From TrEMBL:
Source organism phylogeny: Bacteria, Pseudomonadati, Bacteroidota, Flavobacteriia, Flavobacteriales
The entry's keywords: Hydrolase
PANTHER family: DEOXYGUANOSINETRIPHOSPHATE TRIPHOSPHOHYDROLASE, DEOXYNUCLEOSIDE TRIPHOSPHATE TRIPHOSPHOHYDROLASE
UniProt keyword S-adenosyl-L-methionine present: no
HD/PDEase domain location: 57-264
Protein name: DNTP triphosphohydrolase
C-alpha cells in the first residue's frame, strides 16, 4: 500500500470531496456527526455486558464507545507522529498534515461508531437474528438469493454498522451520516461479503458489509487503497492498516473496563481485580514501577485504587499496542499481517492472558450476564417472528397488516425485493434499545396492555 493513498476525505452521498476552507477538518466533522446522531444516542440503552439499569453504574454501549474513542485517539496520535517522522520522504504535501494532525481524528471517529450497528442485547441479539433465519430456512430461503440469505443467516453487528452509517432511510438524506471513506474503512474489521467468511483468517472470521452496501463498500475500498483478497471467490479485501488500531482500542477497553465493572458489582472480589491489574502493569513494563507504587500506597479507597490501576493498565496497553504496530508496520501496510495486536500482547505478557481467561470464567458466564443474554435472545427472536412473516406475505391478512402498522415509515420500503423488505425489519429491530425492544415484546405478547405515555 502507498501511504499517500490510505485516506480519503470523500464522503458517502456526496459527488465531490468537500471544501477544505472549513476550520474543522472533515475527519473532525465525522466525530461530530456521529455524536449527534440518533443511532449513537441509542447506544446509551444497549447492553455492553452487564444488565441495565442498576443501582451501580456500569458501562453501556455508549460509554464503552466513548472510552474506545479516547484510546483510539491516543493510538492515532502515536502512530501518526511515527509515520510523519519515519516516513517523511514517502509522504506528499497532503499526507504530511494528515498523519501529523488528522489520523487521530479518523481513529477517534471510527472507534466512536464501531458498535453502532450492534442490535439490542449485544451478541445475544445477533444470535437471535442468526437463529431465526437458520431455523426457518425451509420456509424463507427460497425467497432470497444465496448471497442475500447468507447475510441474514450470518447477521453481524460489524457489517450492520456500515449499513447504519451509510444507508438512506425514507425521508432522510442520501449517504446516511455522510462520513468520510477514511472513517468507514477504519471500522471494517472483516472487509468481505458474507459468502467469503472463513474462520481461518482474521480478516474473514465474520463479514463486513451486506449485499445492500456492497457497491458503497467497493467505492470506500478503492478510494482508501484497500487490497483485494484474490484467494477467495467472493468479494473480499485485506484489512486496512487503520483497522488494527481501532480493534486494539476496542479490545483494551473491553477486557479492562469489564473487570472494573465486575468489581463494582461485586461479581468478583476487589483483591482479585487489584491483583490482576497490578500484575498486568508490572508485566507490561511500561510504567515507572517505583512511582506507580508510591502513588498506589497513598490511595485507600478501594474503588479509587481500582480506577487508578485501570488507568495505568490502559495506558500501558496503548504503548504496547503501538510498539507491536511499529514492529509489524511493513506487513500491516502490505496486508500481510494476520494477528490482532491485543493477542500479540497477550502472548508476550501472560498477565494479560490471565485477565482474559479469568473474565471468561468469572465475568462473562456470571448468572446476571447469562440471564440477560437468554432474555435478550428470546425478545429479539419473537420480534423477528412477529414482523418478518407478515412483510413477506403477498396476500396479507388483517393481523399481518396490523403488525406492520407498528413499523415506522422510515423503515418501510416500496421495493419489490424480499431482501429489501426484510432488511427494513432488521434495521428497525437492530436499532432498538434494550428497553424499547422489551417493552414492544411485552405489548405484542399481551404481557402488558395499555395506552402509551
Amino acid at each position: 500500500m502507498d501511504l499517500n493513498k490510505l485516506y480519503s476525505s470523500q464522503r458517502t452521498g456526496v459527488d465531490q470531496p468537500e471544501d477544505n476552507d472549513d476550520p474543522r477538518s472533515g475527519y473532525q466533522k465525522d466525530y461530530d456527526r456521529i455524536i449527534f446522531s440518533s443511532a449513537f444516542r441509542r447506544l446509551q440503552n444497549k447492553t455492553q455486558v452487564f444488565p441495565l439499569p442498576g443501582s451501580v453504574f456500569v458501562h453501556n454501549r455508549l460509554t464503552h464507545s466513548l472510552e474506545v474513542s479516547s484510546v483510539g485517539r491516543s493510538l492515532g496520535s502515536l502512530v501518526g507522529k511515527y509515520i510523519y517522522d519515519i516516513y517523511a520522504n514517502d509522504l506528499d504535501s497532503k499526507s504530511k498534515p494528515f498523519y501529523r494532525n488528522h489520523l487521530k481524528n479518523v481513529l477517534s471517529s471510527a472507534c466512536l461508531c464501531h458498535d453502532i450497528g450492534n442490535p439490542a442485547f449485544g451478541h445475544s441479539g445477533e444470535d437471535a437474528m442468526v437463529s431465526f433465519f437458520k431455523k426457518n430456512e425451509k420456509e424463507l430461503k427460497s425467497r432470497f438469493s444465496d448471497k442475500e440469505y447468507s447475510d441474514l443467516t450470518n447477521f453481524e453487528g460489524n457489517a450492520n454498522s456500515i449499513r447504519v452509517l451509510t444507508q438512506q432511510l425514507n425521508g432522510k438524506p442520501k449517504g446516511g451520516l455522510r462520513l468520510t471513506y477514511s472513517t468507514l474503512a477504519a471500522i471494517a474489521k472483516y472487509p468481505c461479503e458474507s459468502t467469503a467468511r472463513n474462520n481461518d483468517f482474521t480478516h474473514r472470521k465474520k463479514f463486513g458489509f451486506l449485499q445492500s452496501e456492497k457497491e458503497t463498500f467497493e467505492k470506500v475500498a478503492l478510494e482508501t487503497g484497500m487490497i483485494i483478497d484474490t484467494s477467495v471467490s467472493g468479494l473480499s479485501y485485506l484489512r486496512h492498516p487503520f483497522v488494527w488500531l481501532v480493534e486494539a482500542a476496542d479490545d483494551i477497553c473491553y477486557y479492562i473496563i469489564d473487570l472494573e465493572d465486575a468489581q463494582r458489582l461485586r461479581i468478583i472480589e476487589t483483591s482479585h481485580c487489584e491483583g490482576l491489574l497490578d500484575n498486568l502493569i508490572r508485566c507490561l513494563g511500561v510504567e515507572d514501577v517505583s512511582e506507580f507504587d508510591k502513588t498506589l500506597i497513598t490511595i485507600s479507597d478501594k474503588n479509587e485504587r481500582i480506577s487508578y490501576l485501570r488507568a495505568k493498565s490502559i495506558n500501558s496497553l496503548i504503548f504496547k499496542a503501538f510498539e507491536f504496530y511499529k514492529l509489524h508496520f511493513d506487513n500491516i501496510v502490505a496486508g500481510k499481517h494476520n494477528k490482532a495486536l491485543f493477542d500479540m500482547i497477550a502472548e508476550d505478557c501472560n498477565a494479560l492472558q490471565q485477565i482474559v481467561d479469568f473474565s471468561v470464567e468469572h465475568i462473562y458466564n456470571d448468572r446476571s450476564v447469562v440471564e440477560i443474554e437468554n432474555a435478550g435472545y428470546n425478545v429479539m427472536y419473537e420480534l423477528l417472528n412477529h414482523f418478518v412473516y407478515p412483510i413477506l406475505k403477498e396476500k396479507k391478512e388483517k393481523s399481518d397488516k396490523k403488525a406492520l402498522i407498528l413499523i415506522p415509515k422510515q423503515y418501510r420500503t416500496e421495493s419489490e425485493s424480499n431482501y429489501d423488505k426484510v432488511m427494513g425489519i432488521v434495521d428497525y429491530l437492530s436499532g432498538m434499545t434494550d428497553i424499547y425492544a422489551t417493552e414492544l415484546y411485552r405489548k405484542i405478547k399481551g404481557i402488558e396492555i395499555g395506552m402509551r405515555n
